[in-house]
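=== RUN LOG ===
request id: a7f3
mode: sequence -> structure
chains: 1
length: 170
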Amino acid sequence: MTTKFERQGTILRLVQHQPLSTQAEVAEALHASGIEAVQATVSRDITQLGLVKVRNAEGRLVYALPGAADLRRLDELTSALRRWAGGFTPAGNLCVIVTPRGFAAALADAIDAADLDAVAGTIAGDNTVFVAARDGLTGSELAQELRGHLDADSGSVEQPTNAGYAGAEA
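=== RESULT ===
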């Protein structure tokens, strides 16, 4: 049985030495290294490691290690989600996030600034953010990715608690 630490370490080594463009390619490379992982686990690992996509010499988008600016944006996203996200509701290719009144714009800004591959863009109201998934992704997959940023240290995906906030209307 491979631990999360070992699997994520292998992913880091693989993206440094191979041009991997998709989660499926990362899962196949892990398999070739003797580590079995399903797509959902690979997706969570990529999110937690903060891997980014960059153009390689052939012009292909491939996973790469994040730079300091990338890590800072992802930390800010995690902080904003923990602070303001009250719930995630998938709807078609959207993920609807409820926030306390007045905080939707701040959360949408953090999501946009994180420049996630899965996010096409956001629209913020007073207490609701609509996050549009890029083509090929569902709102459910997008919600899973955003939830993955909430618990980047332990590897489990949880709903935020937002204790002290009485709720919001969509």
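=== NOTES ===
Strands lie at 52-55, 61-64, 87-91, 94-98, 119-124, 128-133.
The first strand starts at residue 52 and ends at 55.
=== END ===
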